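Appendix B, example 12.
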Amino acid sequence: MKILVVEDETKIGDYLRQGLSEAGFVTDLARTGLDGHHLAMTESYDLIILDVMLPDIDGWRILQSLHDAGKNVPVLFLTARDSVEDRVKGLELGADDYLVKPFAFAELLARVRTLLRRGATPVAETSLKVGDLSLDLVRRQARRGGRCIQLTAKEFSLLEFLMRHRGEVMPRSLIASQVWDMNFDSDTNVIDVAIRRLRAKIEEGFDSKLIHTVRGMGYMLDEPAQE
């Protein structure tokens, strides 16, 4: 499942992204209200964790824009504003939950899971399938041809990213930023090594190859073209 965190405090934002990623969620982080507003309006998320006090556009306005656009995504406000009036305002605007800083990550994670269960997405959105390769996003399991494939957390995230963008050539720079959260360094081969290991796990023993190298551009996951 995919979560958007909109948080301008660097340490909190990094802490949330790391914790949620380790809990098995695909996590995007926006450090400004405008960036968060853009991602929330243009991408599809299962949950948005939204700060109220942002330097450019506040969380109230972002939530209002989402509702005006008809986007029915659960929103958890995470803010230092702890007055009863602020809580009431957030809930009246349509927020699904309101957590005050400082907070315990265990509590936040419990609230996140509760909101996701409450607004459970269809099965098609909690699993991905390309050919005989399937990915269970809830149980964090990969299978091909009925066989369970053991993946590390990072390999799972990489495979999920490629499957979500089936048929699209993904540049190394984009893979680095979205899966590893780092700027791509042309002198490192971390992406190529990870792809090679993932390819070995999901293709060994199978006739058809799913991960394709597009020279000079990047990698693509798709079924082989029918001759």
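The two ends are 35 Å apart (CA to CA). The first helix runs from residue 10 to 22.
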